[in-house]
Amino acid sequence: AFPQQVRIVEVGPRDGLQNEPGPIIPTEIKVELINRLSAAGIRHIEAASFVSPKWVPQMGDAAAVMAGIKRHPGVTYSALTPNVKGLEGAMAANTEEVAVFAAASEAFSQKNINCSIAESLARFVPLIEQARAADIRVRGYVSTVLGCPYQGEIDPAQVAAVSRELIDMGCHEVSLGDTTGAGTPLKAKQMLAEVTKAIPVQQLAAHFHDTYGQALANLYAVLEEGIAVIDSSTAGLGGCPYAKGASGNVATEDVLYLLQGMNIETGIDLQAVVQTGHWITRELGRHNGSKVAQAWGEC
Ligand code: HMG
Ligand code: MG
Fold this sequence. Notes:
Layout: E1 7-10, H1 12-16, H2 27-39, E2 44-49, H3 62-68, E3 76-80, H4 84-92, E4 97-103, H5 106-113, H6 117-133, E5 137-143, H7 156-169, E6 173-178, H8 185-195, E7 204-208, H9 215-223, E8 229-232, H10 252-261, H11 270-284, H12 291-296
Helix pairs in contact: 2-3, 2-11, 6-7, 7-8, 8-9, 10-11
């Protein structure tokens, strides 16, 4: 059955901006984007990434971003952390939730974080222990759940196994990443059916990129199976530096429009998100990837 409420996890400031080509986006722009999104009613924003700036230069000012944002009560501002060094940076910046990221594909794991899946999981053990000891919640990502740019088809049983490990290690939720956006609705349902044999659907989120224009259809398919947490990116910002050709996440505006049409609550002001999407794409000199934003123009 469809959920009555959905929690949106806005990943534009991280997944979106990490991939912007060209000059480093000024910290103030990142901060203003996050502030506008929380003012629009978004309750969970992935704000930064404490990864190696050599690997992802756009996220090199993570500490300054976390220090600069206005923290609204009731809003979670989270950050990616690939290792204990990242966690230390996130903790110094008062981050209340962090996210570790693994993959269902060995090849993608190597390209993205320079280690095997097993090595990445082993690396997360001390990270999660230290985070939990400091009362910091940890989210887990599994990438390439519907296919890998280097390896092709991915066995849903592998997605289920990595997801289960992340939950057993102490992640409160696992976000299932269609990194390349190559998935289609039936495939998404089949993958989810396998994963929910290992983990209750209440602990899962959908993180779908829109490279092939399938993300909304895929979301509809998994909503029907009870997924109630959706990762999305305002204006469809982004891509993935280690998945060539991958376009951004599904646009937050378009997800909100879909959910409104289904009478599913989010508590978010769609018009304010549309305005924010127009603002940030102007600032970046970038195309607005949201269809709703294109249809409405400057509202
Ligand atoms: P490595 O080179 O194997 O690691 O990278 P290392 O430990 O040898 O460190 C190399 C250098 O990085 C050292 O500096 C470290 O100090 C530094 P040097 O001695 O050369 O001057 N370093 C760090 N600096 C800052 N913060 C840190 C950190 N760690 C090491 N946390 C590593 C391994 C994991 C660090 C690297 O591969 C990395 O940072 N990768 C990040 C890749 C990334 O951010 N990808 C995008 C996010 S994932 C994604 O987008 C998918 C997702 O959206 C879901 C989906 O769509 O599927 C989540
Ligand atoms: Mg992503």
